[in-house]
Structures are given as structure tokens and as C-alpha cells.
Amino acid sequence: PKCIILSGAPLSGKSTWAKEQGLPILSCDRLRLEYFSGKYKFDPKVEKEIWEDFYFRLKLFNKDFIVDNTNCKQAYINKIKENLNPGYEIEIKKFEVSLWLSYYRNVKRWVFTGKWIPFKIIKDMKKNYNNLWKK
Q1: How far is CA 54 from CA 12, 20, 122, in A?
Q2: What is the structure's pLDDT at 98?
Q3: Which of 20, 48, 129, 132 is deepest in the core (most CB within 10 A)?
Q4: Bridge partner list, 44
Q5: DSSP of the chain
Q6: Beta carbons within 8 Å of 76's beta carbon, 6+ residues apart
């Protein structure tokens, strides 16, 4: 089986691409929706539990699936690899867009959905992504 790990800053197109593949998707954003009855909420008080749940669910897969998180640091990718069931082929799919386009998509999404990511977070994650893949 194959695990496709997506890597990219927020609003780089990862989730859109993942939905188009027809494979099961595991993501912390989806877990946050589950934890808060369909409303997206980032709550530091439950983040540890969400990540523990994420790694628990990771072990439940035994066929092809997608991990849809930002995965902008090597440590995050390594932890996924460590928690996968043995025998998985791993593919990393990178999503690179300009910082300007991410900001634009953030404003557009806020207008249509009310979901907002602070610009500083987008910028920091873009920097982490660049540091990871530009080496």
C-alpha cells in the first residue's frame, strides 16, 4: 500500500488536490472538525489529543491513503513514517505556491467561509517549507 504525504504551506492546494484523488484522507483539520461538531477550531487545549488521535488513526490504515497536513518540517514527516504500519510505500507530494497567492487565497476563503489563518502563520509555515525542500 501507498501513503501519500502532502507537504505545503497553508492554502497551497493540498486539500483540494487530495479530495480529487478518491482516496481516504487523514488530516488534523478534519479531526478538528470532528472534535468541534463540524466547526473548524484550533484550540491549544485539545491539540495534544488531536495529534494522539491522528497517530492512532494512522495505524488503522492498511491500504492507499493520503496524509493531508502541512508537513513543513522533517520531524513531522519522520513521525508519520515511524507510525505507519510496516510495508508502506511512501510518496511525498510537494505543493509550492507564492506567499502572495497564499495570502490572496486566505482573504478569498475568509470572504466565502469565514475561516481565517493569520498571515504570520502562513509566512512562518512557508519559510519552514522552503527550509525543508530548498536544501
Answers
A1: 22, 22, 22
A2: 95
A3: 129
A4: none
A5: -EEEEEEE-TTSSHHHHHHHTTS-EE-HHHHHHHHTTT-----HHHHHHHHHHHHHHHTT--S-EEE-S---SHHHHHHHHHHSPTT-EEEEEEE---HHHHHHHHHHHHHHH-----HHHHHHHHHHHHHHH--
A6: 69, 70
